[in-house]
Specification:
- With 350 residues, the protein is an alpha/beta fold.
- The chain contains eleven helices and 17 strands.
Length: 350
Amino acid sequence: MIRLAIIGTGGMANSHAGSFKAIKGCDVAACCDIAPGRAKAFAEKHGIPKVYADTAEMLKQERLDGVSIAAIDKAHAPTALLAIKYGLCVMCEKPLADNLRDARRMAEAARARKLITAVNFSYRNSPATQMAAKIVASGRLGRIMHVEGSYLQSWLVGKAWGDWHKSEAWLWRLSTRHGSAGVLGDIGVHLYDFASFIVGDIAALQCELKTFNKGRKRIGPYVFDANDSMAAIVRFNNGALGTLHASRWATGHANTVALRVYGDKGGLDINLDRPAPETLRICVGQDVDTNIWWPVKCPPVPTMYQRFVDAIKSGKQGQTSFEGGARVQAYLDASLKSSTNGGKLIGIKN
């Protein structure tokens, strides 16, 4: 039996708890949050026997195989490093850290202890995403030339997810003082992983981040200063050129993630317009001459949670890791640096 604890009991932690408890041979033994009332309610909801308000105390008291971190971004690095000190495997929400230096520290610490790590890049749970990566890797599209990726949300325009004007629950997405890295850190991180997982690592990028006037400027002491839109031009290691953009102002798109990959032998188009069914289409062979696209069947795949548990059981690192999370963090840091320097091209150091 793999015994896990969940650290942080906010919204995303519910996905962690439900997913891990559904896995055979996995036991969620404890949870921890600096807000004891929230942690207690979370434990009662998910049938978790032990509740803590201090991570160090929990790690001392419980016999665990690993932890899953669903706390706020700035808590990721210190929490993960503490768990690694105790010799525990760690799964962490995205982004891995607040900055590249901390992300690399986390990766190096886990590597030194030979521990299993994972980052919850949730769009890898998609069968279409996994199939798209296999198609590109197989060479079926030929040499990759051009890439277009987008992550579009509309909650700053509409109220499909509630009214951000009236609830402090949105502050972590809107205010840097509240820990927000804006659209870049919230959904841009997914877009960078989505694109690089399918196409390959990014060699250099230039980016512009934009914070728009929203009318209302703050909730209490928290100013709405986090970026709302991002647009990046990226150069992949394989020579492909791409554009990646994300926004919370995309009217009519509740949560749409899409990628189009074009090679010299064919192309693919993947659309994860949730909650609508995801789609993957391909244009190859003779269809290139007639511009005909065909749907691709995508068999079920393990979730990131299942992959983490399987990796702990086998002792073999899974598909995501802190090393991979640090690479994506490098893209985020480069995006910020580029935007603050007038869209300057920034090389990525691996």
